[in-house]
Amino acid sequence: MPDGVELVRQDGIGIPDRWARLWTPHRMAYVTAEDRGSPDGAVDCPFDRIPTLEDAAGLVVARGATVYAVLNLFPYNPGHLMVVPYRHVADYTELDPAEMGELGEFTSHAMTVLRRVSAPHGFNIGINAGESAGAGIAAHLHQHVVPRWGGDANFMPVIGATKVLPQLLGETRALIAAAW
To answer: Can you point out the beta strands (E) in the chain?
Structure first.
């Protein structure tokens, strides 16, 4: 704001800004760190719980011997997957050779499947190792596979601060799982 511009009117009520609000109270558990897991596994970790659910209910796309692929409940883009070891480990260096190999194989296969079903122009792939690095669930390692399209960072998220997802998660899961 330029100097001298007041953000609060004399009556104490804020001046409307240019931002539209999309209220998502269902994300509050995520924002307040409820149900994210803890380093010692004392809190119910969603990545430990998901494999105990039916695939459709847990948004699981595929299961391997040491890892599974699951849709992100709060996706950056349609088809945003995570590859997660079954074992509750927090750091990449804690993976054993079998887990490390299957994590890589699942990541590669996820890219192949996503290219087949939704033709992304590229991918963001990565691990946020630790809370300070942006990990929402730092206690349980997970690798993101985010499909990207030219122009997917359009005015809605940039100007409108709103993410538009053209397909329901259950439909996305079914499509990707069938192609897996």
So the answer is: 60-63, 67-71, 81-85, 122-126, 143-148
**Among 51, 21, 175, 132, which Cα is nearest to 147's?**
175
pTM above 0.90, yes or no: no
CATH for the stretch 36-179: 3.30.428.10
Q: What is the pLDDT of residues 50-72, one digit of tens each?
A: 999 999 999 999 999 999 999 99
What one-character DSSP code corresponds to residue 85? E
Q: Is 142 a catalytic residue?
A: yes
Spot the catalytic one: 26, 80, 121, 142: 142
54's CB contacts (< 8 A; 6+ apart) are: none
The CA-CA-CA angle for residues 11, 14, 16, to 5°, reads 130
Please tell me the distance from the alpha carbon of residue 69 to that of residue 107, in angstroms, as a whole number: 9
109, 151, 155 from 158: Cα distances, Å: 31, 11, 5
DSSP annotation of 170 reads: H
Residues 6+ apart with CB under 8 A from 64: 102, 105, 106
Q: In terms of pLDDT, which residue wins out, 21 or 151? A: 151
